[in-house]
Amino acid sequence: MTETSAEPARAPTGAPVGDALGRALSAEHAAVYAYGVIGGKTSGALLRRATAGFDAHRARRDQLRTLITQRGGTPAEPGPTYRLPFEVRGPADAVRLAVLVEQRVTTAYLELAADRDPALRRIAALAAQECATRAYGWQPKIGPFPGMDRAGADFDVAIPTPGAESPSAASSGPAGSAGAPGQEAQPEPSAPDGQ
């Protein structure tokens, strides 16, 4: 059996389709494959979650294939198999793989979110959000932020910025200073110098 790298492939040359769209499709092909493996190593609630992930990635894959075709391109076909980053021996490995798959597909969609086409940006943003939500559902923990040695490390989030107000401070001003819902709060008139 031939193995294909799980790394996303480029869109076919000559097609008026951005590379990011082709890489997102390749990521979805790999995700559909991986979720087949994940489903085979799980049962019960984990299998139901794997089935939902498989269905979601299959639907996104089909959507991307249609978009590429509508834009005059030829969508890449999936590989017959994909090299997994580690051997999936049981449910714990399946969960680990699911989290990794969702993180990698999120990365592909983040690249697509930089496209000039607003419709593609919307699709990419929603797909990235869905992937991040699924990853968190598989493993509900957040890793450390860049520059921090551990998740949830104490740090001061109230960094004073000259001339900036937090949204909560702006809306909690004197009675009547905030506008109707959907309108920005009006600033209070400042007193002339010396008063």
UniProtKB/TrEMBL annotation:
Region Disordered, residue ranges: 147-195
One matching Pfam family: DUF4439
Signal peptide: none
InterPro entries: DUF4439, Ferritin-like, Ferritin-like_SF
Biased amino acid composition, Low complexity: 162-187
Ranges of residues in domain DUF4439: 20-149
Name of this chain's protein: DUF4439 domain-containing protein
